[in-house]
Amino acid sequence: MAYRVHILETDEAFHVEDGESVLQAAERSAVTLPHECTFGGCGTCRIKLESGAVAYDEFPMALTPEEAAEGYALACQARPLGDLCISVASSRQSFPEPRRLPATIQRLERYCDDVIHLTLALPEPGLDYVPGQYMNVVLPDGETRSFSMASAPAGNLVDFHVRRIPGGRYTDLWLGQAQAGAGVEIEAPLGVFSYHEEDWRPLIMMATGTGIAPIKAILESLLDNEDCPPVTLYWGMRTEADLYLRDVIEGWAGRLYEFNFVPVLSRAGADWQGRRGHVQQAVMEDHEDLSEHAIYLCGAPEMIQQAKRLLAARGASLDHMYADSFTFQHALAAAG
């Protein structure tokens, strides 16, 4: 039996046949829904069920029971149990169309032992993208590797933070031998992780590892902005030496409204005077009530899954919680 799906924001409608997911039916009907991994691992295809219900063959990794209870679903895995009316949160933001274009390596340098700072020069006038989005680097054999833009749009230079994988075919072999001036092909911009200006709530930004890259791009776009709400940034790393952007971030004081930077180390040395443990624990220690905040999560999928549950228990609004499951999402995007 076919069920009708109506998208609230666009007034589009399509039918889902037996055995299809909402996303599969949308694609068959030439209706665009944001998505990336298609395996339920990234959360990009999150929708809100305004009416109706869905079921899953297997409950998806990027959705928490708390989100499901609030009416959220992942279109790539959800199978309707009747007619649906849905809304798509990312439809509030307009994203440029992705395209393939040539780029040139402008700079390669090490930030720390396992993070490479890569700067690409793009053809003038540069790349139109929304801070928080990412690109695919297209390898000679057609495979791709995905990296978030780590700088706000400005001219034709774009920064990236590349986590080095020992023995990795791209980060250790190809990129390890690359030099400034080498050409690459990219596909960009991709993804829907972005700042939601319409919320105008105090911001809590939580990042682990190179998940700081899209957060950096978003916060750079808010520097010296009179409409910037209060910002607290929690960045989780293992050791003090891993805080490769510490000086840059501390330099944002006075340029972001009521900016508070909280580095959190999971393997801190005896001399570390700051916070220890994990970012989600630090946020819980600092905030008894999160009902008035907008929260951005970027980094390890384990952190994001745990953080969603903990923050919801402190009243955080799932309508104002945005996540980029950095490692898992981008690995799946590349595999796809």
TrEMBL record:
Q: Which CDD domains match?
A: fer2, flavin_oxioreductase
Q: Which organism is it from?
A: Achromobacter agilis
One MF annotation (Gene Ontology) recorded for this entry: 2 iron, 2 sulfur cluster binding
Domain 2Fe-2S ferredoxin-type: residue ranges: 3-92
**What is the protein named?**
CDP-6-deoxy-L-threo-D-glycero-4-hexulose-3-dehydrase reductase
By its UniProt entry, which InterPro entries does this protein fall under?
2Fe-2S_ferredoxin-like_sf, 2Fe-2S_ferredoxin-type, 2Fe2S_fd_BS, Beta-grasp_dom_sf, Cbr1-like_FAD-bd_dom, FAD-bd_FR_type, Flavoprot_Pyr_Nucl_cyt_Rdtase, FNR_nucleotide-bd
UniProt cofactor(s):
[2Fe-2S] cluster; FAD
Q: List each copy of the FAD-binding FR-type domain by range.
A: 98-196
Q: What class of enzyme is it?
A: oxidoreductase
The keyword Repressor belongs to this UniProt entry's keyword annotation:
no
Kindly give the Pfam families that the UniProt entry links to this protein: FAD_binding_6, Fer2, NAD_binding_1
Q: What is its EC number?
A: 1.17.1.-
Q: Which UniProt keywords apply?
A: 2Fe-2S, Iron, Iron-sulfur, Metal-binding, Oxidoreductase
Gene this protein is translated from: ascD_2
